[in-house]
Amino acid sequence: MTRYANPGTEGALMGYRARYDHWIGGAYVPPARGRYFENPSPVTGKPFTEVARGTAEDVEAALDAAHAAAPAWGRTPPAERALLLHRIADRMEEHLTELAVAETWDNGKPVRETLAADIPLAIDHFRYFAGAIRAQEGSLAELDDDTVAYHFHEPLGVVGQIIPWNFPILMATWKLAPALAAGNAVVLKPAEQTPASIHHWLSLVADLIPPGVLNIVNGFGVEAGKPLASSPRVAKVAFTGETTTGRLIMQYASENLIPVTLELGGKSPNLFFDDISAAHDDFYDKALEGFTLFALNQGEVCTCPSRALIGSGHYREFLDAAVERTGRIAQGHPLDTDTMIGAQASNDQLEKILSYLDIGRQEGAKVLIGGERARLDGELADGYYVLPTILEGHNAMRVFQEEIFGPVVAVTSFDGFDDAVKIANDTLYGLGAGVWTRDGATAYRAGRAIQAGRVWTNCYHAYPAHAAFGGYKQSGIGRENHKMMLDHYQQTKNLLVSYAPKALGLF
Amino acid sequence: MDAKDEPGGGHGGPPPARVAVTPAAAELLRRLGLAHGALMFHQSGGCCDGSAPMCFPVGEFRTGASDVLVGTLEIPGVPRPVEFWMAAAQFERWRHTHLTVDVVPGRGSGFSLEAPEGVRFLIRSRLLDDDELRRLDGADPGRRADQHRPAP
């Protein structure tokens, strides 16, 4: 095991500054109204830095800088934009461990995840879009002997991006990499729960990015997010969050006639067919880990496999093994590499999870393990910790229908394929799903029948670049994590060209 | 819980309320009302800050035919009753529960008005009892937005 020192203490790999302003036009700029807010670490519940509390004036200044930078940036050769992304990736790789520590301190998630997933995925994501933009080509259509339609990709200009708190650096990367690759200038608002780690990232890469191409305005949704999302000066808004704010952002976008991409969460089913238990081999072990992945990132994942549907033929046996596996999840200091589950990101997140455990019990869900706040010792005593929890019930319960965004899985059984798909699809959402079976045909048919944008088949929670990610139903609009995201950040310019010397003859 | 239900009578009276507010949440609504004017809630679903009530100035969030007015909170000191809305599809999955708007120390909240105060609205729930369910689902299946527009 390794136990990384808390940021800013003796032996620490990194330290946060005492204060972060807005990053506008390639420099730190104090907030126009001079206000800051404290940022606590979920690990301890104690503030460790303060962050600019942005308002419309700050957003306007950032938009000014972005508009000043966008024309030149949009004309840079793709090779130059790709090189920027590669250099960012290389710089991140050189500082991978300290970025992982910084992210854990701001968000509360265990460092074993930030080391293995968040930061490596972000690095690869920049490299992926560096490659994608180099390989992107327009098209031409030869309409007749003298007429050609050329299609060019052009950047949108200045885009607004609103980042969630569950993977602060990775989710910023999912939005930044395609936007920058496509030649846009960006105004980005980090989540107010996790406003700091992106600034540590920025401290590592700021010298690489032309001034104004990336601008970061911190603050609260209503004070800084809203002026950004509703501004007539952005050509597109990208948002990851929840349904009501997603609707509000679409409403603002309709006023400005601009596109949006939205990623709005889910209640993802994880299906475990009977044949998994035919042998207690590596695959069985993998499936049990697949069940337990509901606790990844403390369950604060839009695609958390928060509904486990288990075939009735092996229901009790598999569930017993899953409970036993869940009981082995190590909870502890998030900066200890042995820790598997860290702190929830904020106090209100903790309270919301506890409120769902309450209504789950009232509705008759049986608590098989966990079911309460975890009380840890020492400096962790005031952190926001929840025990990994398995609830057994039926799909009409609120805990089966609403995203709890905590380490809570709701379990029920199904009788055969049709019942499995019916329960899986009985949800408002359609972001992720998991299918576990030894039978290829069952896997294929279930994957196609489930109404979700991503169906992990005999795996879960993998997020490689080049696999499209996005929602069906109320889970959003657009597909991230894939070169098709470039289309969400580009206009199509058609030049319709005649090479014919003669007039039409109409006039 | 110190929840204060809306007025609502016994048998034969008006149907019981689906939504209530705690004294702490009522006090916060009074403060927000002074700063922002008339207020409304829309219950969010899904990711991150979701599964939580979002508080907006009236008119900020457009409700439509896909929404249900779940209840109206009459709060002393708040000039206009605070309407509580939810997407109709979500309401169908919540309608067997009574909701109480509470407030806890917290941080983010989408574009909800209270976040800069360092607090967060939160829903606490209980099951409606048989009598409440019979009276509510008989009399008030939830008014759709197209049947009830907020006054301008």
TrEMBL record, chain A:
Active site: E263
SUPFAM superfamilies assigned to the protein according to its UniProt record, in alphabetical order: ALDH-like
Residue ranges annotated for the Aldehyde dehydrogenase domain, each copy included: 32-494
Gene Ontology MF: a single term: oxidoreductase activity, acting on the aldehyde or oxo group of donors, NAD or NADP as acceptor
Alphabetized UniProt keyword annotations: Oxidoreductase
Record-linked InterPro entries: Ald_DH/histidinol_DH, Ald_DH_C, Ald_DH_CS_CYS, Ald_DH_CS_GLU, Ald_DH_N, Aldehyde_DH_dom
Keyword Ribosomal protein in annotation: no
UniProt similarity note: Belongs to the aldehyde dehydrogenase family.
PANTHER family given in the database record: ALDEHYDE DEHYDROGENASE B-RELATED
Name this polypeptide is given: Aldehyde dehydrogenase family protein
Species per Swiss-Prot/TrEMBL record: Streptomyces radicis
Lineage summary: Bacteria, Bacillati, Actinomycetota, Actinomycetes, Kitasatosporales
UniProtKB/TrEMBL annotation, chain B:
Classification via InterPro entries: DUF779
Superkingdom field: Bacteria
Protein name stated in the entry: DUF779 domain-containing protein
Organism name: Streptomyces radicis
Lineage: Bacteria, Bacillati, Actinomycetota, Actinomycetes, Kitasatosporales
